[in-house]
Amino acid sequence: MLLLGVLLWLSFNIKFLSPIAHAVRDFSLSDMYYQIDWDSDRPMEYSSDVVIVDITKLYDRDEIANVVDMVKDCSPKAIGVDVIFEKKSYDEAADALLMEVADSSGAVFAKKLTDYHNDTFNSQVRSFFVSDGVKDGFTNAAGDMSTKCVREFRLMETLDNVPQYSLVSQVAELYDSTATVEDKTLNYRINYRRLEFSVIGCDDVYENRELLKDKLVLIGMMSEESDMHLTPLGKIPGLKILAYSIQTVLEKKNIKTIDDGSLMALSVIICFITVLWQFYWIRFIGSRKSFMGVLLSNSTLFSSFLTFIWLALIAWITYVVYEKYDYNIPMAMILAPVVLVAEGRNLYASVVKAYSRTMPGGIFENSLYN
C-alpha cells in the first residue's frame, strides 16, 4: 500500500506523468459491466416512461414551436425541450409563436450553467423567452464539465450560490410526483443498463399520439455532432444521456458508490488476503520435492497466472454486486495494490536482507525472507 501511495503521488505531481494520472482518474470498471450487459442475447427492453422526439432536421423556430405544440396536443405528462434559443432571431413572427408555445405548453426548457469557479457557477446561458411562466433547467453533466466520460448527473447546482434545478429533476417530478430525491446536491451515477428509448420523427408526432400519451417526452436533436458525448456506451447524443438520467431517477436505481474510507479498508483487506494465500501457496509448492513442485515454485509465470485468476474472481464478485444491488465498487483502488503485491514482497525481502547483512542478529534474523 505504501508502494502504491508513492506511485500515485508521483503520477499526480510529476508533469510528464500527468497523462497517466488523467487516465487513472477517468477509468471505471463499471464501463465493462455495461458492455457485458449490452452484449447479452436477451431481447431489448424499451422504456415505458420516456419517449424521444427528434428535431435534428428542423432549423426554423416556428417549425420547432409547432412540434412542441403538437406534442402537447398528445397529452403527455411532462415535456422537456433540449434546445436553447439564446437570442431573438430576425423572424419576429417565429419568435412570437415560440414564446406563446413555451408559455402554454408547460414544457421545461434547457439552459447551461457556465463559468465554474469556487464550487459555484457564476453565469448561465438560457433562452430569451424564459420568464416566471416558463421553466428551464440546466443540462450540464455533473461537476465542472472537465470529465471526458459522462457517468454522473446532478439534480441541483448553484449559480452565485443560489440553488438551480436540472431539467432532469424538474421533468421527472412533473411526470411522477413521487420521483423525488432527498439530497439533490449529490452526484448520482447514470444507470446505462440495457434499455432503449422509442424515437419519433418530428413529422410523425400525431401518428404516434398513443405512444406519447401520459409519457415523459424529450424533444431535441439525436444526430447533431456537436451534441455527442462520450459515455460508457460510446458516443451518444446528449438528449439520450438526459433520457438515461431521467430513467435512473424514475426507477430510483441510481448507482450507489462505496465511500472512500470503506474502499480503502476493503482494499487493504483484499491486499492482505492476496499476500496470505500467495505466501502459503509458495510455501506449500516449495515444500514439494517432485520435479513439478520445484518447477512451479520457481515459475513467476505460474504465480502470475494464479494472480490473474484471483483478480478475475474479484472482478466477477464486484460485477455481481453491481448487477444485483446497483452498487459500484471502484476497482482501480483494489486491483492496483493486488497487482503490486509481488513487487511489495520483493521490496520487503530486499529490506530484510540488507538489514540482516549490515546488522546481524537483529529482528529479521529468523525471517523467511532472510
Note down, in words, how this protein is organized:
This protein is an alpha/beta fold and 370 residues long. Helices cover 46% and strands 19% of the residues. It has 13 helices and 15 strands. The strands form five sheets. Strands 1, 2, 3, 4, 5, 10 and 11 form a seven-stranded mixed β-sheet that branches. Strands 6-9 form a two-stranded antiparallel ribbon. Strands 7-8 form a two-stranded antiparallel ribbon. The radius of gyration is 28 Å and the shape is elongated.
Secondary-structure blueprint:
Layout: H1 2-13, H2 18-25, H3 30-38, E1 46-54, H4 61-73, E2 78-81, H5 92-105, E3 108-117, E4 120-125, E5 135-138, E6 152-154, E7 156-159, E8 162-165, H6 167-175, E9 187-189, E10 196-201, H7 209-212, E11 216-220, E12 228-231, E13 234-237, H8 238-251, E14 256-257, H9 260-286, H10 291-297, H11 300-325, E15 327-328, H12 332-339, H13 341-358
Helix pairs in contact: 1-2, 4-5, 6-8, 9-10, 9-12
Based on the model shown, name its key terms.
single chain, 7-stranded mixed sheet, alpha/beta, two-stranded antiparallel ribbon
Strand content: 15-25%
Q: Please tell me what the overall shape is.
A: elongated
Share of helical residues: 40-55%
Round the mean pLDDT to the nearest integer and report it.
83
- Count every helix, treating DSSP H or I runs of 4 or more residues as helices: 13
Computed structural class = alpha/beta
Question: Any low-confidence stretches, pLDDT <50, length ≥5?
Answer: none
Alpha carbon gap, first and last residue: 22 Å
Characterize the largest beta sheet: strand count, sense, and whether it forms a barrel: 7 strands, mixed
Integer-rounded radius of gyration: 28 Å
SSE run: HHHEHEHEEEEEEHEEHEEEHEHHHEHH
Q: Can you count the beta strands? A: 15
